[in-house]
Design brief:
Blueprint lengths: L1 E8 L6 E8 L6 E10 L2 H7 L16 E8 L11 E4 L2 E3 L5 H4 L11 E2 L18 E5 L4 E2 L6 H4 L5 H11 L7 E5 L3 H12 L3 E6 L5 H7 L3 E4 L4 H5 L4 E6 L7 H5 L2 E9 L11 H5 L4 E4 L5 H14 L5 E4 L4 H9 L6 E5 H4 L6
Parallel strand pairs: 10-11, 10-13, 11-12, 13-14, 14-15, 16-17
Antiparallel strand pairs: 1-2, 3-4, 3-8, 3-17, 4-5, 5-9, 6-7
Helix pairs in contact: 4-5, 4-10
The structure holds NADP nicotinamide-adenine-dinucleotide phosphate and zinc ion.
Length: 352
């Protein structure tokens, strides 16, 4: 057992304080990682503020982790000390069910173990990347290609795979029209990845304030959703609408943007239910679906794809004491485009 400096929230309204947390001893198949960078995902905010009603306090969020291997257990074959590695949303699963066997650990039949806020059989609760170190089964450790900047790669561990998976599943590529709704952390990565896949990308953002950025990320068009004409102009246009918005949306309005057989896939997870009349789906045989992160093999595929195509997150680096302020700015859509905590410099071990 070792202890590492970390941040924790003790209630929905507490904000973060510094603490020390325990990490388990390095087991035979474990990789011990010294964390350098931790991205701030809007899911961290939903959970730290108990917006999904399932938070175990104290909570240490963080599932966009990049660091270096410090030590490996004797049975580890894939990693060695000094390598730059990542950890995303998951740290364990049964490893034997049909989904795990298929590399879709995110759907593990026994319940996947999230990087933070998952209760374990011993009574403890997993703690995430707002900490200086973590010990993870090697099956859940990703190789960060050297072509990627480690800080700008961190958000790919969640924002990258969460958008890559549905873009692949629903066939984003040449000749396909993809709309990305919301250009925050997930959305800006989605624009870059969909463009790199060869799709014709349109951004639907609340205003035109980030239009230049969207076009620079690879979008062909950029419209403001607060302008009702946007929905008239783009009616029936898209093969795929990827919704990354963290708040409620009038979903039928977005369905109207789809071609026959078009897909509206939500990765944004606001707590409120959708209101959809069956006719809005039946009329053009539209598909309304969602997507949850992705499996480990596809996460590695995504990192390799991003390295090959020069896709990295746009980030604003902050210190460990700036997380509360960063949360408020994310909620206000005032983020360009992902906050990443400089763990190495601002959450160091005592005496380091
Ligand atoms: P984010 O950085 O806050 O981006 C969300 C974007 O949504 C904002 O930048 C904004 O884009 C738009 N938006 C925010 N409030 C809005 C409102 N009231 N009306 C319309 N648009 C609004 O958040 P994120 O980290 O990308 O996460 C987005 C959502 O995905 C969260 O709900 C998160 O929990 C969820 N998520 C899901 C998965 C999964 O596996 N399904 C994984 C990770 C995250 P514009 O400024 O461009 O309008
Ligand atoms: Zn996330």
């Amino acid at each position: 057992m070792s202890t590492v400096p970390a941040l924790e929230a003790v209630s929905a309204a507490s904000g973060f304080r510094r603490t020390e947390i325990d990490r388990r001893p390095v087991g035979p198949r474990d990789v011990e990682i010294e964390i350098d960078w931790a991205g701030i995902c809007h899911s961290d905010i939903h959970i730290a503020r108990d917006e999904w009603g399932a938070t175990s306090y104290p909570v240490t969020p963080g599932h966009e982790i990049v660091g270096r291997v410090l030590a490996v257990g004797e049975e580890v074959t894939g990693f060695s000390p000094g390598e730059t590695v990542g950890v995303g949303c998951y740290v364990d699963s049964c490893g034997t069910c049909e989904y795990c066997a298929d590399g879709r650990e995110n759907f593990c039949a026994e319940g996947v173990v999230a990087t933070y806020n998952t209760p374990l059989p011993d009574g403890s609760v997993t703690r995430g990347g707002y900490s200086r170190g973590v010990v993870v089964d090697e099956r859940f450790v990703l190789r960060v290609p050297q072509a990627l900047d480690p800080a700008r790669a961190a958000p790919l561990l969640c924002a990258g795979i969460t958008t890559y998976a549905p873009l692949r599943r629903w066939g984003a590529g040449p000749g396909r029209r993809v709309a990305v709704v919301g250009m925050g952390g997930l959305g800006h990565v989605a624009v870059k990845i969909a463009a790199a896949m060869g799709a014709e990308v349109t951004v639907l953002s609340q205003s035109l304030a980030k239009r230049q950025d969207g076009l620079a990320f690879g979008a062909r068009d950029y419209f403001a959703t607060k302008d009702p004409e946007t929905f008239e102009r783009n009616r029936g246009r898209f093969d795929l609408v990827l919704n990354t918005v963290s708040a409620d949306l009038p979903v039928e309005q977005y369905l109207s943007l789809l071609r026959v057989d078009g897909v509206l896939c939500s990765v944004g997870l606001p707590p409120e239910p959708y209101s959809v009349r069956p006719m809005a789906l039946a009329a053009r045989q539209r598909v309304l679906t969602g997507s949850m992160v992705g499996g480990l093999p596809q996460t590695q595929e995504m990192l390799d794809f991003c390295a090959e195509h020069g896709v990295e997150s746009e980030i604003e680096v902050i210190g460990a004491d700036d997380v509360d302020e960063a949360y408020d700015r994310v909620v206000a859509s005032d983020v360009r485009y992902r906050f990443v905590v400089d763990v190495a410099r601002t959450l160091a071990r005592a005496g380091a």
